């Protein structure tokens, strides 16, 4: 057995191929929103319009993504992901054409809303690992940590690549190259049929299987509502941290350096995710989740302390690097909890709900961070991610307490024979 746990993962035939395809498909997820803002604001001269269009796409994704994920679980990844990706690609191309030829504003909203059919490639990749590593908790832990590191890498490189392409080539370059990468990556990923989880099909009430798990909303599954709200709070940490950091760098006259500063935070999270996956987890999963959330809450105070005490962008960069190291372990344990609590055959749907909650939290955090910056100042705005992290910690703690205090069914012992019965 290889000493490196990641070597053990990629020793499985077909895993390298689907991972490379998924990496190419996942990179544009950090490119599209930045590319759209640059393209629309440059052509129409309105950041408000650009922000409204991207917010509409996020809202549409929150509605459509779980439905797409349910179809993926039911009919298979290749059968659903490829046509869904082509529809999303057409929406992006339509957005480019509408901006280029001056179409009415409503066409921008309609075009970007069509991109909501983009499948959750990260969720599909995690579902493949769960299928291939079924019964091996340590290997699943390593795979989830690797996937979280990939997420951080893509969200770190995506915006930088988008800004470079739009600024160096032409404003539409980021969107068009993102479409090419998305379609290519999904086609390569879907072609790896040997590692694809088998489709679950549609269960009918006449079946003798447990239909409650197949038909009941995942929002009613035990522990899922609080867990998804926790993803919402964690997303608010990310969204507020991004907006406040950009505002703080702009206030200091270094707005161009904001991307590099935020990249350090993502780099810290990426590195911590890989290290976390190489370490054998100890203790219950719920307890680990609480500890990781507590570490994230403590780490989020570092940027606030940096701007209050030092007021230096360099010190803030180091604080964000350290703060990022606590986010990946929190996300890994939370995503593992989602996998544990999702009924069999609906794994992709459960993880997509988690990602949807995360995206919703990012939007709420960005709005809250923007309000704090405008009314309280950029330095005080760093209190928003601290407050959001505290909410995530409270949710994880209450969830762990509810699990530990849940009454257990006791096996009834037979009553001792009476003397009269023995006579």
TrEMBL record:
InterPro entries from the UniProt entry: MFS, MFS_trans_sf
The organism's place on the tree of life at top rank: Bacteria
GO molecular function terms attached to this record: transmembrane transporter activity
Keywords tagged on the record: Membrane, Transmembrane, Transmembrane helix
Membrane-spanning ranges: 20-40, 47-68, 80-99, 226-248, 260-279, 291-310, 316-338, 350-373, 379-402
Cell cycle among keywords: no
Protein known as: MFS transporter
Lineage summary: Bacteria, Bacillati, Actinomycetota, Actinomycetes, Kitasatosporales
